[in-house]
């Protein structure tokens, strides 16, 4: 299908090539001032500044993290490398009120919930293609993950009210280095990644270059499950002097997998005794192939020392094709509910052939102005953005269905291979979003910061399913107002109000589109340090009122995927993150989270089941002196409370590393140390798990890694 407002492929590439990236400035670099670039020393300082482009969730205006009137958790590259999860992004589950939702069709990039509800995963503050994770950035490209909790529409446009996850990609740096990592586990997985930062190119003054990439061949407890990934990303930054800079990058990721796609529960909600992590629930000849290319560029120019223009643009295209990858189903109602009947112990191997294409064009521009009055720095920003997204999905002529007894699951199952040229259109999604916004950080005194903003978003959308097109056109004005006060030299307290507008995907039973979700969020919190910096902490109490939350219609029958809107929900809870370092050698990290959802009078449907309690603790010790200096020992646990029919669980991890030579480390890690069996996607849709899609978390995994820098 061709959209009326979709730019041509050539136009989209040109827009991406000449426009620019990075809207949200870091506090240290947004208004760097340089008087001259005549000396090598001074120009090197300029390169340092211009090499760090504005990719952070800190905000469009330079506000130090301690002055932000909302929760912001940051997991940097050191943290990701130290914990060494199979999927580095899984480190997010150590944070309060962040839980896994699902990882479908083996793309290797799961989705998450924040404060009980879906959390968008962004790339440098831009929403990316998210169909089953097929459009996410590879881990080799990531510098850090940032998590902003609560309504974030003012900062980022229409995104989910629970929070957002921002993947900050690597930028060129002035220092030249090459990083490498080789990782293998006891299932036979092997993979390597590299990061070559050339620094300033000798033959081209003011030009910096960086190249990252990876190849991974994953094996799993279920032998038929496979995943192979290749990724490459060059990025170049041009420093044209003290006032002007440009950055451009191209990212390519290709993943081929045969996923373990899930299974149904027994009709009483229990996991079948015949299924564990070594059970393959897919088809032996299943295959999913995802190819994603992401072009991004960014231009920054300081008209004056206190007036800055940022223009950014990106174009992303994703192809995701699959054959025989859907998994096991059962819609048996004979025992009083969906799932596998106790007296009819069959599952149905269900294989589809499908092809999806996605493309997204993003453009925006902003002006940031800085002034001095009341003896303080005051910051203002105005901007506009445009986002065009298109998605098309086609299915093969017929699904494959085979009845299989539970006690015969070990026998290989094969589905027919279909010709993609014969696939018929099934559904499509086209959207255009136009936005304008204004924000300010006002400092009446050196201890008080007030941040306010207003944004207008206009969303135009056409959803088409089986030839039935449902138009959607809605706009919303959202506000944010928050204040942070320096109560002591080391502690800031804050209060904030923020609204959110999230245009949702899905059709209701009457063929009308889901209305946009809106929310009003309130938060009180504190952040800072205690006991001369031994303890650093961030804590928050939150209360949000959410309207028109979209859920799958509970009246759906087999093959129906209609949605319905809950009238009104109240979401409230608290979060605490603390880091305790009594000595240079010893460090303890603690996280606690609690979320409660209540239906308000007039709610049309029951509130979705969510995980109400999360916690994590991690203790690490590093030998400081002697022959074992540098030896690091770490261990911790992640707790996830029960939800619906699924019990709570605790996962323990152990990490040991040692520098065998200067700049070369080896590590041995054991993930899920006690081989806990748990349902990984319990908060995705517990009711749906009766019929399909239940996925077990990874079993005990022993990992050996060599990493270093030259």
From TrEMBL:
It is found in: Cell outer membrane. It holds the Pfam family TonB_dep_Rec_b-barrel. InterPro entries: Beta-barrel_TonB, Beta-barrel_TonB_sf, Plug_dom, Plug_dom_sf, TonB-dep_rcpt-like, TonB_sidphr_rcpt. Keywords: Cell outer membrane, Ion transport, Iron, Iron transport, Membrane, Receptor, Signal, TonB box, Transmembrane, Transmembrane beta strand, Transport. Residues 66-164 form the TonB-dependent receptor plug domain. Residues 1-32 form the signal peptide. It is a multi-pass membrane protein. Residues 243-673 form the TonB-dependent receptor-like beta-barrel domain. PANTHER family: FERRICHROME IRON RECEPTOR-RELATED, FERRICHROME OUTER MEMBRANE TRANSPORTER_PHAGE RECEPTOR. Belongs to the TonB-dependent receptor family. This is TonB-dependent siderophore receptor. It comes from Ponticaulis profundi.
């Amino acid at each position: 299908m061709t959209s009326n407002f979709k730019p041509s492929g050539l136009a989209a590439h040109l827009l991406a090539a000449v426009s620019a990236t990075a809207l949200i400035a870091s506090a240290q670099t947004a208004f760097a001032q340089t008087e001259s670039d005549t000396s090598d020393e001074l120009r090197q300082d300029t390169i340092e500044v211009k090499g760090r482009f504005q990719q952070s969730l800190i905000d469009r205006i330079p506000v130090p993290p301690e002055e932000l009137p909302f929760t912001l958790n940051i997991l940097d590259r050191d943290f990701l490398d130290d914990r060494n999860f199979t999927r580095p992004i899984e480190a997010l589950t150590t944070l309060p009120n962040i839980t896994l939702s699902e990882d479908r069709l083996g793309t290797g990039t799961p989705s998450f919930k924040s404060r009980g509800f879906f959390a968008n995963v962004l790339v440098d503050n831009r929403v990316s293609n998210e169909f089953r994770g097929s459009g996410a950035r590879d881990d080799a490209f990531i510098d850090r993950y940032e998590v902003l909790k609560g309504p974030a529409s003012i900062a980022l446009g229409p995104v989910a009210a629970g929070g957002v996850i921002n993947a900050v990609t690597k930028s060129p740096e002035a220092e030249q280095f090459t990083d490498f990592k080789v990782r293998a586990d006891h299932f036979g997985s092997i993979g390597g990644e590299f990061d070559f930062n050339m620094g300033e190119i000798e033959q081209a003054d003011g030009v910096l270059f960086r190249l990252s990439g990876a190849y991974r061949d994953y094996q799993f407890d279920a032998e038929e499950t496979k995943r192979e990934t290749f990724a490459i990303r060059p990025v170049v930054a041009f420093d044209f002097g003290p006032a002007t800079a440009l950055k451009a990058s191209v990212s390519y990721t290709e993943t081929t997998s045969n996923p373990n796609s899930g299974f149904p529960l027994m009709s009483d909600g229990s996991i079948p005794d015949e299924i564990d992590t070594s059970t393959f629930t897919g088809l032996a000849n299943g295959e999913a192939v995802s190819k994603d290319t992401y072009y991004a560029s960014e231009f920054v120019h300081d008209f004056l020392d206190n007036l800055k223009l940022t223009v950014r643009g990106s174009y992303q295209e994703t192809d995701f094709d699959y054959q025989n990858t859907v998994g096991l189903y059962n819609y048996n109602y004979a025992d009083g509910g969906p799932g596998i009947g106790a007296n009819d112990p069959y599952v149905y191997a269900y294989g589809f052939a499908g092809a999806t294409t996605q493309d997204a064009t993003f453009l925006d521009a902003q002006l940031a102005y800085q002034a001095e009055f009341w003896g303080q720095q005051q910051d203002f920003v105005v901007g506009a953005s445009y986002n065009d997204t298109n998605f098309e999905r086609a299915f093969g002529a017929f699904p494959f269905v085979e009845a299989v007894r539970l006690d015969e699951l070990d026998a290989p199952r094969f589905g027919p291979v279909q010709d993609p040229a014969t696939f018929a259109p099934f559904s499509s999604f086209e959207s255009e979003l136009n936005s304008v916004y204004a924000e300010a950080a006002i400092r009446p005194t050196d201890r008080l910061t007030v941040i306010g903003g207003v944004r207008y978003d206009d969303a135009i959308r056409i959803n088409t399913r089986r030839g039935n097109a449902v138009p959607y056109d809605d706009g919303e004005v959202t506000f944010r107002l928050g204040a942070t006060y320096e109560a002591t030299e080391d502690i800031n307290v804050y209060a904030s109000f923020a609204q959110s507008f999230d245009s949702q995907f899905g059709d209701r039973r009457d063929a009308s589109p889901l209305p946009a979700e809106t929310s009003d969020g309130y938060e009180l919190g504190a952040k800072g340090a205690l006991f001369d910096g031994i303890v650093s902490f961030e804590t928050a109490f939150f209360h949000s009122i959410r309207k028109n939350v979209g859920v799958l219609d509970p009246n759906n029958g087999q093959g129906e995927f209609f949605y319905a809107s809950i009238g009104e929900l109240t979401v409230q809870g608290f979060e605490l993150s603390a880091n305790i370092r009594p000595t240079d050698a010893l460090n303890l990290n603690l996280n606690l989270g609690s979320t409660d959802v209540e239906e308000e009078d007039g709610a049309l449907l029951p509130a979705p089941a969510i995980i109400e309690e999360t916690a994590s603790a991690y203790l690490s010790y590093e030998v400081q002196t002697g022959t074992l200096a540098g030896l690091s020992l770490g261990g911790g646990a992640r707790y996830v409370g029960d939800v619906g029919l699924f019990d709570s669980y605790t996962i323990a991890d152990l990490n040991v590393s040692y520098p065998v030579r200067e700049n070369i480390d080896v590590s041995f890690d054991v993930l899920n140390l006690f081989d806990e069996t748990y349902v990984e996607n319990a908060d995705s849709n517990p009711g749906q798990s009766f019929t399909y899609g239940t996925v077990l978390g990874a079993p005990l995994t022993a990992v050996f890694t060599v990493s270093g820098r030259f």
